[in-house]
Predict the 3D structure of the following.
Amino acid sequence: MPTIPLRDRSGAEVGTVELDDAVFGIEPNVPVMHQVVTAQLAARRSGTQSTKTRAEVSGGGAKPFRQKGTGRARQGSIRAPQFRGGGVALGPKPRSYAQRTPKKMVRLALRSALSDRAAEGRVIVVEDWDFPAPRTKDGIACLDALGVEGTALVVVPFDHDVAQLTFRNLPQVHVLTPNELNTYDVLVHDVVVFSADTLPGADRPSSATEDTGAADNAAEDTAAEDTAAEDTGAEAAENGEVES
């Protein structure tokens, strides 16, 4: 696994962190990234453009002139497409530009984009966004200390409102939560900055409380089954005595 420095908010190294090869160490699939980004940009289109056909424009209810004898081409309405002020033939109508993209393709494109940024050394991991209060000045100082140049994609935890408020006013910074991470935003920014708890593929410590709770539940279920079996045996014995 590739290893990169783990930094604090002031830019000092406080350790190292291993990047998951399945997320940051694959060969980028350029055609898949292109297709997913195209689908993302297409889904952003509002699709509200509209034109009127000859049936929707006003006027043109009467035949402009008689069928024969004028020497002109026959016409049935002055709102036909060839007339000024007439309807539009085959014009655009409101529609959705969304494309169906398989989930596996979306995940592959995101892993390819992250692998490309990691291979170029453009992935930074911060131990924690321990800002005392939301201040844009602190956000600027933090990015300068981390050596961020150009645009940056900052991934913050869900409940870290202070970090979101600190970075959101910076025009060269885009703030996302882990569930909003996507291929387009990774590729369009120069640097991707994660905190230690938002790094994709990072090992999470197993919860001993959950394991203990599961064991306790299993023990309770076993005890309940034994009690039920004893009650059933006692009832059967009583029934046998009554019959005899």
Observations:
- Helices lie at 21-24, 30-44, 103-119, 136-146, 161-167, 183-188, 208-243.
- Confidence is low (pLDDT under 50) at residues 204-216.
- Residues 208-243 form the longest helix (36 residues).
- The chain has seven helices and six strands.
